[in-house]
Write a structure and sequence with these properties.
Order of helices and strands: HEHEHEHEHHHEHHHHHHHHH
CATH topology of one domain: Rossmann fold
Shape: globular
Radius of gyration: 21 Å
Distance between the termini: 36 Å
Length: about 400
C-alpha cells in the first residue's frame, strides 16, 4: 500500500443518477462498466469493509486507511439504498486522487454498513473490488451498543452520550418498537430488525465466497472485532499478509488524520473517529432478560445464528490454537477481570469452536458464575452443533 500522505478530504459530491432510490438500469450498468474499467486499467485495489452497525467498523476503517492511498467513509449510506450513488462517490474519489497527484491510487479503503447494500447490488460490486473484509461482533454486545445509541436518538439527542443505563433501559420498549416499525417522518429511524446488517452481511458473504473462489487473486476476510481489540498486532499482521500489505505499527496505534470525511460531531462515530488506536473491549453486553421482546427475537433468530456461522467460516482470521484461545480468555480487561469474566457470552461462544475437552473447567465456571446467561449458553451450544464444521483456526 502507499504511504497515505498528501491526501485531501473529499465529501460526497458524486453524480446522483436517480434520486428516487430506484435503479436507472442504463446508468447503473454503464456506471459499473466505467468503474470496473477505471479500476482495472489503473491497477487499483479497492478494499471494502462490510459490517453490521456498532461492530467497531469505524475504528477498523481508521486503522486500514493509515496505509491506504485513498479512502471513503460509508459511500453507500443512502436512505433508501441507492447503489448508483455509492458507486459514483467511489469513482469520483479515485478520479479526484488521480487528478490531484498525477497518478492513480494503488489502494482505496471504503467502509459501509451492510444493510445499505442490497444482495443483488453487492453481487455486481464484486467485479470491481479486490477484497471484502467482513466484520462481526458478539450480538449481545453489538445490540447493547445499538440500543444505547438509538435510545439517545429516540430522546432527540443525536450528538450526546449522556443517558444513564437506567434511562436507556427505561426507553428500551420505545426503541424496540421503533426498530420494529420505524418512526413516522424519520427516514433515519426506518424499520431495522427485518433488514438488519446481519441479514445483509450473510447474503454478502454467501455471494462473495463462491465468486472469489473463481478469482483467486481476490480476498475474503472475516474479522471478529472483539478478538482484534485483544490481539491487534497479531491479527493486523495476519490481515495485512492476506491483503499483500506491509504491516506497520501505525495500523494498531498512533493513528493520524487521514483523508476520509467522518462526522466527528455524530455520536455514532465520534469516539472511534477521534481515537488513535485499538482499545481493549470494555463494552458492556445485554442478557436475554435485559432485551426488549423484539430485540430478543432478533438476537436469537437472526443475529446470533449468523454470528456463529461466520465465526466458523474458513475465511475468518484469529487465534491459531488453544494456547492463543487461553491467552484471550485470560486477558485482563479492566485490571482485575479477565475477558471470560468481563464478557462471558463471547467467551463461551469461542469455546464452541473446538471440542471443549481442554476447556471444561472454564465452561463450567462460566455456567456457575453467570446463571443469568445459561439460556444463552444453551442456545449457543445448539447453534454451534448446527454450524458448518469448517473452522480451521482452533486446534482440537
Amino acid at each position: 500500500m502507499g504511504a497515505g500522505t498528501g491526501r485531501s478530504p473529499l465529501s460526497w459530491t458524486g453524480i446522483v443518477y436517480n434520486i428516487s432510490g430506484q435503479h436507472d438500469d442504463n446508468a447503473y450498468s454503464q456506471l459499473l462498466r466505467v468503474a470496473k474499467k477505471f479500476v482495472t486499467e489503473n491497477n487499483i485495489k479497492i478494499i471494502h469493509v462490510d459490517s453490521p452497525p456498532r461492530a467497531a467498523s469505524t475504528a477498523f476503517f481508521r486503522a486500514l486507511e493509515q496505509d491506504a492511498d485513498a479512502s471513503i467513509f460509508e459511500p453507500f449510506l443512502d436512505r433508501p439504498p441507492n447503489f448508483e450513488n455509492g458507486c459514483s462517490r467511489i469513482l469520483e474519489t479515485l478520479k479526484h486522487y488521480k487528478t490531484e497527484h498525477g497518478i492513480p491510487p494503488k489502494t482505496l479503503v471504503a467502509k459501509d454498513v451492510s444493510r445499505y447494500i442490497k444482495a443483488d447490488d453487492w453481487a455486481q460490486w464484486l467485479d470491481v473490488i479486490y477484497a471484502s473484509i467482513v466484520l462481526i461482533r458478539d450480538p449481545f454486545t453489538q445490540l447493547n451498543s445499538l440500543l444505547r445509541r438509538k435510545a439517545h436518538e429516540y430522546a432527540n439527542n443525536y450528538t450526546g452520550d449522556n443517558l444513564s443505563t437506567s434511562e436507556v433501559m427505561s426507553l428500551a420498549p420505545n426503541v424496540d418498537q421503533m426498530l420494529l416499525t420505524g418512526r413516522p417522518n424519520d427516514e433515519s429511524a426506518s424499520p431495522f430488525y427485518g433488514t438488519s446488517g446481519w441479514k445483509n452481511l450473510k447474503e454478502h458473504v454467501d455471494t462473495t465466497a463462491p465468486h472469489f473462489q473463481k478469482h483467486h487473486e481476490k480476498k475474503l476476510i472475516i474479522v471478529d472485532t472483539t478478538l482484534l481489540r485483544i490481539m491487534p498486532t497479531t491479527m493486523m499482521q495476519e490481515i495485512t499478509s492476506y491483503l499483500g500489505m506491509k504491516y506497520s505499527k501505525r495500523l494498531v496505534s498512533g493513528w493520524g488524520n487521514t483523508g476520509a470525511v467522518i462526522n466527528n460531531n455524530s455520536a455514532w462515530y465520534a469516539k472511534a473517529a477521534l481515537s488513535d488506536g485499538f482499545l481493549l473491549p470494555t463494552d458492556p453486553y445485554l442478557t436475554l432478560n435485559d432485551m426488549p421482546n423484539g430485540m430478543k427475537e432478533h438476537a436469537i433468530k437472526q443475529a446470533l445464528p449468523i454470528y456463529i456461522e461466520l465465526l466458523n467460516h474458513p475465511a475468518r482470521v484469529g487465534p491459531k490454537d488453544s494456547v492463543d484461545l487461553r491467552r484471550i480468555l485470560a486477558t485482563k480487561i479492566d485490571g482485575t477481570k479477565t475477558f471470560s469474566d468481563f464478557n462471558p457470552i463471547t467467551a463461551y461462544t469461542l469455546l464452541t469452536l473446538n471440542d471443549k475437552l481442554s476447556f471444561k473447567k472454564i465452561e463450567k465456571d462460566l455456567r456457575v458464575h453467570f446463571p443469568n446467561n445459561i439460556a444463552v449458553f444453551d442456545i449457543i451450544d445448539q447453534l454451534a452443533k448446527n454450524a458448518p464444521n469448517t473452522t480451521k483456526w482452533l486446534i482440537k
